[in-house]
Amino acid sequence: MKCYLLFIAATLATCQGLPVLDTYLRWIQSSTLKDIESHQSDAEKIINHALYGPAQNQSYNRLAEFTDTFGSRIAGSQNLENAIDYMVTKLKEDGLDNVHTEAAQVPHWVRGNESAVMISPRYHPMAMLGLGSSIGTPPEGVTADVLVVTSFDDLKAKASKAKGKIIVYNQQYVSYGKTVQYRALGAREAAKVGGVASLIRSVTPFSIYSPHTGWQDYDDNVTKIPTACITIEDAEMMQRMQERGVKIRVTLKMEAKNLPPVMSRNTVAEIKGSKYPEQVVLVSGHLDSWDVGQGAMDDGGGAFISWQALSIIRQLGLQPKRTIRMVLWTAEEEGGFGSQQYYKEHKKNIDNFDLVMESDDGTFMPLGFQFAGNSAARTIMQKVLEPIQKVQSIPLLSGAEGEDIDEWISAGVPGGSIATDQNKYFKFHHTNADTMTVQDPTEMNICTALWTVVAYTVADMEDMLPR
Amino acid sequence: MKCYLLFIAATLATCQGLPVLDTYLRWIQSSTLKDIESHQSDAEKIINHALYGPAQNQSYNRLAEFTDTFGSRIAGSQNLENAIDYMVTKLKEDGLDNVHTEAAQVPHWVRGNESAVMISPRYHPMAMLGLGSSIGTPPEGVTADVLVVTSFDDLKAKASKAKGKIIVYNQQYVSYGKTVQYRALGAREAAKVGGVASLIRSVTPFSIYSPHTGWQDYDDNVTKIPTACITIEDAEMMQRMQERGVKIRVTLKMEAKNLPPVMSRNTVAEIKGSKYPEQVVLVSGHLDSWDVGQGAMDDGGGAFISWQALSIIRQLGLQPKRTIRMVLWTAEEEGGFGSQQYYKEHKKNIDNFDLVMESDDGTFMPLGFQFAGNSAARTIMQKVLEPIQKVQSIPLLSGAEGEDIDEWISAGVPGGSIATDQNKYFKFHHTNADTMTVQDPTEMNICTALWTVVAYTVADMEDMLPR
């Protein structure tokens, strides 16, 4: 209730500078900040428990056992469903409340065998990974001359040479956000100018001959052509060859298939709120992964620090006023199918969603807490983060990130996520190297402490965050 | 002649502190240093030509065309012989003197198809590379339980459990020099305690699920078992599984074969000396590579800056007093077969070998010039390096490195090599990622300038280096 007054007061004070409302706003803020301060000793308990106590390395160890046991978990696979069953068992064993799953229909893309071989000017099998949703090739493959381009503009400039060619994109890596368009749209743009397949330089700042997979988007009005990512190394080599006037010919074989959608599940567990159980602070990560690597970083880490937040609160015998709900999304990699279904079913209760958090950028050493919310809420979050600053400097940043929480944030719910070293993250992203080797127990402890302190403090404040 | 006096003088002065000899030594040194100073303008010409003139990026571009054309060049392969033929043609086209090859017998190991698949606790095909000289497995492979060890000591401690097992080494990476023993000796040590195969964590500080190959050494008195490198990621995972008491079973299949030795060739070209043509400054790298990647870094870079040194001297119309000889060794990777043959045939002229240089640690930005020689020679080399310091700080370091020049250095010939960032080098070493992508044209220009200034100045001094 008070939070709405705070919101109105903040808005009016900001817009009109009214002195009475301003005073009232300060009074409310000061009362809220005192409320947060009263949680400081709980926050310290959480931090000590996560970093030095019985929960030390627990999220890492649980994740190691999970990923070692199941490996990769692509949407549509039985392996993902087995992994979900395993999580339900573990969450129940952990004594959490209301452990259950919620159904969601998900795509079912299957890779099959695949290869890309340069057959001219010399025989050179290339490391590659077909892209999610790509069609396959005929069994004999697609064999064609190569046209290398460095951008969509370059493709347009060379459009007259593209017909019947395999289009190789050798775009520079700028950032994942900017460069991923080549993976997502490379096939459709190639097809528009008559390309018969596309091979895209992997979207990464660094390679040890490492192909990266990921989802791609056909346009229903454009011919669908098979598409895969190759390494930086081979994309650069083919460009050099083309610049020398060398004719390049490649055979691409892909058994990839888009099968009918299947049912999967979001996995849910809670710490039930004592006073406002219908109000929710949501912590999340996605349990599905690509079908390469083991989904330890993307997004096992995010999923397991979310579990760990609930686990630590239960271990410490804390009970927040409102419910902390963990959701492990399904089929994030294909475009957030699990979270979209969840939003559809739960948006009617949107007023009760206090804060939605997702960790899906890696659980490396946190470089900041990304927060989407108004300035009054930012003031509160700044205070919430105070206890963790003794462990690691964690500035409050703008703009929470997470495909699975975007709809909630767009609808006005405050959102949170963890900023990490993205240059490191995208070296391993969607590759066979997404394993426990990139995870560090201490870094996961600190992410866990941050995640738990934020979730618990916000869930136990008297008021919901202003929005 | 004077250099012998210098040597005697230096030795006596050092041992006995005689004032007369000390004075004589200083006089000689000062005359030698003046000789070097007189080469400063030639050195500057070389540097300008290599960095900003017509030779800018030439070594990089030549190497790119070479590696793009031939790819990998393992000893014993027709591809290496074709690459040697190509080099002979190019060296002749470049107008160099005495272009020829010298025969050397080399091992002929062939990889064939290979795989390592974890079949229990779950199906997990592992990235792997068989090790050079390894025997193959029977066609159905070797299937056995796994014993993970972290060191040779740990293997001894667990020896009673090793019989019939596939031994997995999950040793920590300390440095290449220290850690490579597991790759070299892992199979024989495993066999001694009854292991049926060995899988060794790749010798690298960093992995993107990257297996590294390399040579390994059987002991003729110990059963030979198949051996390969796996990734850091899988070695670590198997150790975690073992610590949890999980039984691991792996099927290893390798078609590897040790075929009869074949003839290969060292490739030689020269700038003939004007005054002491029988005296030689030798610059070198090895032309062979592993059968993965494209041998751009190991050791295309070293080979091509050595060619470039001669090329630049010819382009500038310089003619040193003694001969600068480039040798591109064959079969370095198998243990220096080309260079051993060369030493055997040329050691009778060892007194005429003034300085032997090899670049085989990467042609990244030089961090120093490694030099093996006595203190009088070091004083000279310090002076020789002066002109290059304006471009890049290049301290004179101790202990030249290079498998192909070791015998000469051990026999007392001064030796030189380039120190580079070894943490970077060993990320790519003996992998599919050894391609032009790790090479940088500017860094190669600077390596070339350094290599050429040293070779030319030493070759054109009146005296040979003291030894």
Q: How would you describe the overall organization of this protein?
A:
Chains A, B: Belongs to the peptidase M28 family. Chains A, B: It is found in: Endoplasmic reticulum; Golgi apparatus; Lysosome; Secreted. Two copies of one chain form a homodimer. In chain A, β6, α7 and β7 (197-201) form a beta-alpha-beta unit. Chain A is an alpha/beta fold and 467 residues long. In chain A, α2 runs parallel beside α11 (375-384), α4 (58-70) packs across α9 (296-315) and α4 crosses α14. The two termini of chain A are 12 Å apart. The first copy, chain A, folds into three domains: 1-37, no CATH class; 39-106 and 261-460, Zn peptidases (Aminopeptidase), CATH 3.40.630; 112-255, Glucose Oxidase, domain 1. Chain A has helices at 2-16, 19-37, 40-51, 58-70, 78-93, 152-157, 176-192, 232-243, 296-315, 337-346, 375-384, 406-410, 422-428, 441-460; strands spanning 97-110, 114-120, 124-126, 128-130, 142-149, 166-169, 197-201, 227-230, 249-254, 257-271, 276-286, 322-329, 353-358, 368-372, 396-398, 415-419. Helices cover 39% and strands 23% of the residues of chain A. The model of chain A is unreliable at 1-15 (pLDDT under 50). Chain A is elongated and about 70 Å long. In chain A, the strands form two sheets. The first copy, chain A, has an eight-stranded mixed sheet. Chain A has 14 helices and 16 strands.
